[in-house]
């Protein structure tokens, strides 16, 4: 939300707002499952949740900050926000893929795979915008 407030471009602002909404939904999903487990239950298989077939051993890689900083000439605040967002998506992806590998519950694995896939999609979107800002000075 902070990045959306700081971003002047309407496309960038809309992207950050959309990502914030997605992350709120992810948090609600995880909190529902947590309440079930803390209540003595187990993961609940969520309807309509099609987990993508992702390689749980594959990592996402951030851009090399030093290389990017050498090329940055425009919108450093927006680029910094994108870099932080990329790092957050990587951490979230790694967290969810590790949880998907470790949990014994099929419902839990499915949820974590879905969340990892969502974070991968976010990463791709952010990286496209990052590269566009660096190369062309504009949002995708």
What oligomeric assembly is this protein in?
single chain
Shape: elongated
Number of discrete domains:
1
How much helix, percentage-wise, in residues? over 70%
Radius of gyration based on Cα positions: 17 Å
Count of helical stretches: 5
| Strand element count | 0
End-to-end span in angstroms?
Answer: 19 Å
Approximately how much beta-strand content do the residues carry?
Answer: under 5%
Outline the biggest β-sheet. none
Which spans of ≥5 residues are poorly predicted at pLDDT below 50?
none
Q: Which sequence of SSEs, written as H and E, runs from N to C?
A: HHHHH
Query: What is the averaged pLDDT score?
Result: 87
Structural class by SSE content:
mainly alpha
Overview of this structure, please?
The protein is mainly α and 140 residues long. Helices cover 71% and strands 0% of the residues. The chain has 5 helices and no strands. It has helices at residues 2-6, 10-38, 65-71, 76-102, 106-136. The mean pLDDT is 87.
Present the secondary structure layout.
Layout: H1 2-6, H2 10-38, H3 65-71, H4 76-102, H5 106-136
Helix pairs in contact: 2-5, 4-5
Q: What attributes does this structure have?
A:
140 residues, single chain, 5 helices, elongated
In short:
The protein is mainly α.
